[in-house]
Amino acid sequence: MTTGEEGYLSDFALIPFDALVLDTVDSHIFQSKLLWTPQLSVATYGGQLVAHAVESAYRAIEGNLRIHSLQVSFMNRGISEDPTPITYRVQRLKTGRSVSVRGVEAFQGTRRILYAIAGFHKVEEGGLQHNFAQPHFVTSPAHTAEEMHAREQSIEEDRTTGSGRSLPVARVHFKHIHAFTTCKSRSHDIWFRLGDETLVALSAHTNIPLSRLHLVLAAWLSDFTVALSVFLSHERDVFDHLNLIASLNHTLYFHDPTAIRVNEWMLLDVSSPWSSWNRGLTEGKCFNAKGQLCFTAVQENIVRTSKPFRSNL
């Protein structure tokens, strides 16, 4: 693994607190506070935009409805260096007794960044029930109480200085993340979690209720982890020839929002069934430690390399 690859992946282990903050402009209009761009990228992180879309849509929902899907189409890249915030406007497309739909359009100045459609559903009992098990049994990573306490201290010690000022960041703990650049396979398992104290601090800082923050963070993490699976079938030197990877669209299916607990170990099984013509389709299925399928992510990306790569894996 090259230093650039390692730095790029480790960059996602830190989430700036302010990057999750949305300021209220009006009852259905919200603005970003801090836009974040990872290393080796020229655009605002797509996972941040997806997370903002989830939170914006939720703020325009009344009652006991839960999000069940989010479909995002990206139209222009966000520019983090631009002092103009990204503004999210929520549209009430449908408000029903059991199902509601909200549209979210995002602009940075006059540039349209994305359009998203979020579906919400009232909890209903009965009906068909089945759940695909994890692709294979994997034991969740374990840490002693002392180790986790030591990791929690990173909330205040870690800082991001890309903007020239010190900002609090939340640390995400990953297992097996670097295998993206060291193995060749059809699929890959990634474990992730945040600490309990980190989650509480994030909720207080962002004013996002804890129950909803789990979903917002899942949306944030679903982007780069799933997108990178497009490289799994190829030799590792593909990274040396990578010119561009950018999301075209991103879909999330929240099967059971109450089962998503990012302060507990969660397993994301990622794969890429197809890539050609400078596009790649990627998928991710997220399970909790009990083996319950919690959410599914599907993403289509533009992928450009300086030379062609072909795999029969």
UniProtKB/TrEMBL annotation:
GO terms for biological process: acyl-CoA metabolic process; fatty acid catabolic process. Residues 211-300 form the Acyl-CoA thioesterase 2 C-terminal domain. GO terms for molecular function: fatty acyl-CoA hydrolase activity. GO terms for cellular component: peroxisomal matrix. InterPro entries: Acyl-CoA_hotdog, Acyl_CoA_thio, HotDog_dom_sf, TesB_ACOT8-like_N, TesB_C. It holds the Pfam family Acyl_CoA_thio. Residues 38-120 form the Acyl-CoA thioesterase-like N-terminal HotDog domain. Keywords: Hydrolase. Belongs to the C/M/P thioester hydrolase family. This is Thioesterase-like superfamily/Acyl-CoA thioesterase, putative.
